[in-house]
Amino acid sequence: MTEKKTVALLCGGRSSEHPISLITAAGVLGAIDRTAYDVITIGITRDGRWYLTDEQQLAELTAGTRGTAEFPEGTQQVFLPMGAGDSRLTLVDAEGNVTRTAPVDVVFPLLHGPFGEDGTVQGLLEMADLHYVGCGVTASAVGMDKHFMKVAFESAGLEVGPYEVVTNRQWEHEDREQILERVLKLGFPMFVKPTRAGSSFGITKVDSVEELVPAIEEARRHDPKIIIEAGIVGREIECAVLDGHHGEMPRASYPGEIEVVDQDHGFYDFEAKYVSESSAVTVCPANLPQDVQDRLRELAVKAFLALDGEGLSRADFFYTEDGRLVINEVNTMPGFTPISMYKTMWENTGISYTDLISELLTLAMERPLGLR
User: Where along the chain is Mg(2+) 1 bound (predicted)?
Assistant: First the structure.
């Protein structure tokens, strides 16, 4: 019988997506194969401290949550090793007593947004010589930044929609009228977004000149660098990507489509994603011609490779009336909640929730440490 592996699962974090991470972690803990893996669950507070937690505490935090759950401080603080071949975590209780965990085989960073999905934690884990699920430092950083992501896509020959970027330096020191003039050339509607945030936080659909500056200020509350994207008329189609083993080509799921059925939601916003149970429905495989499905899956893999992705990603496209597939963005650590699209698309493609988690952990342990 194969010896069980030890997984360190990270959740919470410093970003505005802290509560979503907790929901994701609760879902993974409920589905992971306990006959193959022992789990050490670590909750990261909003100010960045790491504490041991467990499934029961996460269940209490996420029960009936409306996106407000926060991880409370625990009694044992967690510290990573810093290389030297020691993969045990150090635990320090409130009295200063020190203990060590079993050696950690792989880390599953179920963290969304800045300080978790953007290459920062990935760099920390690289420094600690720990295997981890998901993209590396560069792919995570580029995949978190909607501006540089589009630059990478364009370089790879993928079609992206019209957009403008407004940096903090520009907004604070340049002529705002000139900035607004170039932004208004995108036309209405447009979407104003924080460049490095997710889960629809800080996003505003703008339909008039009067709405633009307030939308920019709202996005800047989440990120000093913002991106403004022209509205694209088309269906929103997603596709999940799973890396190949030992350098083989990545795999793409059947594409899925989210249909927002509640007219109170002008787009697939935070409320529709995580709060309302009746705002949206998922269709997978999406109702598309077979050749379009095949092309979309190829483009999802192409986007993954454009970022030098590893492990997993979810690619989001617009399918226009004239048959174009315009890539909007990728998510390098998509949600794993019971209703998340990534999990749902792979289930409909033939990989169960439990098997998907095992596959991701296996891919992470196969991957060599260091430069690759």
Answer: 316, 329
